[in-house]
Amino acid sequence: MHRIQWEEAQQKHVILYPEGMVELNQSSAEILKCCDGTRTLAQIVSDLEQKFETTGLTDDITAFLGVALQNGWINQN
To answer: Exposed site from 1, 37, 45, 49, fewest CB < 10 Å?
Structure first.
């Protein structure tokens, strides 16, 4: 139902769905791109902390994934 893709006209990632579109900021897009069904939350956090050379992202990533789950952008396996 929902698909993430790069929207050239807006120069950002968006979530497309039958009723419309949601624009994503860079961090939201990076989190969603990690949601491939093979990674655990811990792996997503680790990958993103390594990618952005920082620590302490667990709470922010967990909160965003809760919103994404509630909105149907991802599903829980």
So the answer is: 37
For 51-70, the pLDDT digits (tens) are 999 999 999 999 999 999 99
- Give pLDDT tens digits for 28-56: 999 999 999 999 999 999 999 999 999 99
pTM value surpassing 0.70: yes
Domain boundaries, the chain: 25-77
Sign for the CA dihedral angle at 16, 57, 62, 35 comes to: positive
Tell me the three-class secondary structure of the chain, residue by residue.
CCEEEEECCCCEEEEEECCEEEECCHHHHHHHHHCCCCCCHHHHHHHHHHHCCCCCCHHHHHHHHHHHHHCCCCCCC
